[in-house]
């Protein structure tokens, strides 16, 4: 990059993946599939049938040996274990991404347990990671403590964790069927991802422009110093 490089020459192209974990996460990922280019979609589930029905660029089936393909039946400890057993496979798929969004329905076993394990893998590779956890309906009373405990584990390894409430949709759409309510919640996640990525890109652009303008004020010729950007976002000129 030389001193004459202008804003228009810079393209920031973070490699972004949306990773759905468990039933809810995979349903959300299906809404993203081929809808938000160039975002890649990865689905992770212990439930073979649900995974087969998911639309995603990549599917990672965890873990036949532990759950026989039938899900964890609400056991977050099992969900965590399944992700650990498939750690190498998950890691291989995640390497190379700059930004990852983990999407999980809290209160079940697979998503609630596996998400913190996947977040740890992202952390090891300096991937900028966000988790969007969907809190269960308040009538799912047995899931609430599981959701709360799972969220605690997830927040400990992924500080950028946000929650959305299934309950809110019932307030807005009191006559909705269950599947309409779930779909409505699922659709709110895409604009969040889109806007977050746009903000990150524009933040990095401003950072680069600042460095450029400081540099060009001081030097009329010569090479620009190398610009180091956190989290390994790829910059092409
Ligand atoms: N918004 C939304 N919430 C969902 C959806 N499916 C399930 N949920 C919520 O997510 C919670 C967890 O459910 P699942 O995602 O099915 O659980 P899981 O991670 O597959 O875990 P196990 O099946 O127990 O192994 C449920 O209690 C629901 O509140 C969905 O498609 N959309
Ligand atoms: Mg499931």
From TrEMBL:
<keyword id="KW-0342">GTP-binding</keyword>
<dbReference type="InterPro" id="IPR003008">
    <property type="entry name" value="Tubulin_FtsZ_GTPase"/>
</dbReference>
<dbReference type="InterPro" id="IPR036525">
    <property type="entry name" value="Tubulin/FtsZ_GTPase_sf"/>
</dbReference>
<protein>
    <submittedName>
        <fullName>FtsZ11 protein</fullName>
    </submittedName>
</protein>
<dbReference type="GO" id="GO:0005737">
    <property type="term" value="C:cytoplasm"/>
</dbReference>
<dbReference type="GO" id="GO:0005525">
    <property type="term" value="F:GTP binding"/>
</dbReference>
<dbReference type="GO" id="GO:0003924">
    <property type="term" value="F:GTPase activity"/>
</dbReference>
<dbReference type="InterPro" id="IPR045061">
    <property type="entry name" value="FtsZ/CetZ"/>
</dbReference>
<dbReference type="GO" id="GO:0051301">
    <property type="term" value="P:cell division"/>
</dbReference>
<dbReference type="Pfam" id="PF00091">
    <property type="entry name" value="Tubulin"/>
</dbReference>
<dbReference type="GO" id="GO:0032153">
    <property type="term" value="C:cell division site"/>
</dbReference>
<feature type="domain" description="Tubulin/FtsZ GTPase">
    <location>
        <begin position="15"/>
        <end position="204"/>
    </location>
</feature>
<keyword id="KW-0547">Nucleotide-binding</keyword>
């Amino acid at each position: 990059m030389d001193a004459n490089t202008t804003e228009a020459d810079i393209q920031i192209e973070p490699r972004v993946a949306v990773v759905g974990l468990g039933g809810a996460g995979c349903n959300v990922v299906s809404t993203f599939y081929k809808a938000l280019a160039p975002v890649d979609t990865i689905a992770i589930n212990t439930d073979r049938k649900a995974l087969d029905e998911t639309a995603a660029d990549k599917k990672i089936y965890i873990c036949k040996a532990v759950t026989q393909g039938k899900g964890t039946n609400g056991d977050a400890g099992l969900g965590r274990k399944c992700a650990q057993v498939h750690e190498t496979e998950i890691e291989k798929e995640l390497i190379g991404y700059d930004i990852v969004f983990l999407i999980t329905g809290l209160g079940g076993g697979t998503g609630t347990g596996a998400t913190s394990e996947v977040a740890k893998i992202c952390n090891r590779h300096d991937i900028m990671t966000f988790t969007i956890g969907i809190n269960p309906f308040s009538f799912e009373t047995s899931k609430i403590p599981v959701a709360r405990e799972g969220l605690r584990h997830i927040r400990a390894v992924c500080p950028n964790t946000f929650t959305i409430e299934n309950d809110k949709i019932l307030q807005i759409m009191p006559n909705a069927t269950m599947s309409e309510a779930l779909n409505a919640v699922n659709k709110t996640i895409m604009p969040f991802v889109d806007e977050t990525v746009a903000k990150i890109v524009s933040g990095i652009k401003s950072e680069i422009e600042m460095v450029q303008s400081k540099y060009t004020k001081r030097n009329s010729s010569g090479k620009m110093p190398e610009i180091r950007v956190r989290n390994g976002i790829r910059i092409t000129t």
